[in-house]
Specification:
Blueprint: H1 3-6, E1 11-15, E2 21-24, H2 26-32, H3 47-64, E3 66-76, E4 79-90, E5 93-100, H4 102-124, H5 129-157, H6 168-185, E6 189-196, H7 199-206, H8 208-225, E7 231-236, E8 239-245, H9 249-265, E9 275-281, H10 288-304, E10 310-312
Parallel strand pairs: 9-10
Antiparallel strand pairs: 1-2, 1-5, 3-4, 4-5, 6-8, 6-9, 7-8
Helix pairs in contact: 4-5, 7-8, 8-9
């Protein structure tokens, strides 16, 4: 497991169709205080969560190929830990990300306690009316704080923590809508796949902190060049994706070449880099998978032709 994923600020594990644990990152191990390797998903869960997991997980993953925001409770040496779990199926295995929800649970407990106290005061005496009003104001404040927390948690699930860009989950959710809008409005749309050339050499030569810095700098450079309506996302590793609404192949090539030139001639803190870019235009009949496939094929040609270049799918170079 890559060090960045192993030490990510969230739990990560991989399970097989029998719910046996294949991999678990260090963050999750520390979260639950596991002293010995766990072999099955049920060992992680409380009895109630185990029943919920058995009832809903398998049907959802089989029907949709993913599970979004399943609320579970983990067992740990220090007590129960509520988590929000997102799962995606890949190559016959299920990759799970678990976000601790302890802060949210504290707020919900405080809300419940405040509500019960308010009801008790109301029943017992009318003289406590003033106190009740103050308590209700406190409850409203807690509710607003909880709403803000929910927005922050939602943001975490669609944001890459290293670069601050949107992540693959966000792109998986939004790309079909963007494609549908392009088709209905009869407007063009293009997709760029941007890959850092020889990025492994950066990590091997300068270390992973320098590699992380390069990824962050590239994210800033991509955002500086693109428009407000464009979507810039990090797919993972050194690969980035840019969705360009209202831009055809010619405009997308121009944008990609501008990005490539800015990266090649831009200032870098640690080491200068270059990028290879694949360009694909959305066409009627495309789905997200086929659009990505065309862009990846174009990226392959850029890499194969010597890197630090732009290639558009279906355009003779």
């Amino acid at each position: 497991m890559e060090e960045q994923l192993n030490l990510a600020p969230c739990g990560y594990l991989v399970i097989d169709p029998s719910n046996c644990i294949i991999e678990m990152n260090e963050t999750l191990k520390q979260m639950i205080g596991a002293e010995k390797p766990l072999t099955h998903m049920h060992e992680l869960l409380t009895v109630a969560s185990r029943a919920y997991f058995q009832t809903y997980f398998a049907p959802s993953i089989k029907m949709h190929g993913k599970v979004n925001e399943m609320f579970l409770t983990l067992k740990s040496v220090s007590g129960r830990i509520p988590v929000l779990m997102n799962t995606a199926e890949r190559n016959g295995r299920y990759e799970c990300v678990l976000l601790p929800m302890t802060v949210r649970q504290e707020y919900e407990n405080e809300l419940l306690l405040a509500k019960r106290q308010a009801e008790k005061i109301h029943r017992e005496t009318a003289e406590a009316y003033t106190n009740l009003q103050e308590l209700l104001e406190e409850v409203e404040g807690k509710k607003q704080e909880l709403e803000k927390l929910n927005v922050q948690l939602q943001g975490l699930t669609i944001t890459d923590p290293l670069t601050g860009l949107k992540n693959r989950r966000y792109l998986d959710e939004q790309l079909p809508q963007l494609m549908r809008h392009s088709l209905e409005a009869e407007k063009p749309m293009a997709l760029l796949v941007v890959d850092i050339d020889h990025f492994k050499n950066v990590n091997d030569t300068y270390g992973h902190p320098a590699g992380d810095s390069v990824l962050q700098e590239l994210a800033w450079k991509l955002q500086a060049v693109t428009r407000d309506q464009d979507t810039v996302a990090r797919m993972g590793g050194e690969e980035f994706v840019i969705v360009l609404p209202d831009i055809d192949t010619s405009g997308a090539l121009e944008m990609a070449e501008k990005i490539r030139g800015n990266v090649e001639h831009g200032e870098w803190k640690h080491v200068n880099i270059t990028v290879s870019i694949g360009v694909a235009a959305y066409e009627s009949g495309d789905d997200p998978a086929s659009l990505f496939s065309k862009a990846d094929e174009a990226l392959y040609h850029s890499k194969n032709a010597g890197r630090n270049r732009v290639t558009a799918h279906g355009v003779t170079q």
